């Protein structure tokens, strides 16, 4: 069996920035075990698989160790493949996934994704968490991830967390964030429990970040920067119980898997 595979830098205006994701178009689903093996072999933070259906496409995402409910950068990468390599004629793509329906629109060079907004619940800081992050926590919220608010942008840039200790958290990952100096807010994202010590740019994390910063800054349109080593910019908009996330993408590689 031969399968097409693409590697795309998402939330990137040029190669070698943003977050790389693998994208595998399928005519029909492989077994869960096969998709997990492919994701492990790719050794990227996410591998996306999609199959065409009556609504558009069914989309699934795998880290090297597990399937996840939502992944923004791999959705952006998949949309880039469908628009650019499949010459998709519509301006809007509808995806069915474990988090419901996702809609992606093409607006000039940007791809605009519409996701459900996370529900933020204030949380008590676990005993180990401040030691693991290495910076005092100003506020902590919980949904799929922890949203860990710190005092300033420089603290986010300088983070050197204890990854093994972070893995004690009973959530997918830890988002560390602060207000930005040149953008509205900055963040970094660590998910050792999902097999990703640090993710370069995390779309799904912005479903938590956008509601928080929209309320705190009293504005619905925000520009965010994930300040990992690769870095990437996310354009965010709060829309009630939904968030709109936009960015660009570049194809790095096109190939073939032989199973």
From TrEMBL:
Q: Which GO terms describe its cellular component?
A: cytoplasm
Keyword annotations from UniProtKB, A to Z: Isomerase
Mind telling me which Gene3D superfamilies this protein's record contains? Answer: Diaminopimelate Epimerase, Chain A, domain 1
Q: What Gene Ontology molecular function terms does this protein carry?
A: isomerase activity
- Alphabetical list of InterPro entries matching this protein: Phenazine_PhzF-like
First and last residue of the signal peptide: none
- Would the keyword Isomerase be found if you checked this record's keyword annotation? yes
Write out the catalytic residues in the record. Answer: 46
Concerning its family, UniProt says: Belongs to the PhzF family.
Against NCBIfam families, the record matches this protein to: PhzF_family (TIGR00654)
Q: Write down what this protein is called.
A: PhzF family phenazine biosynthesis protein
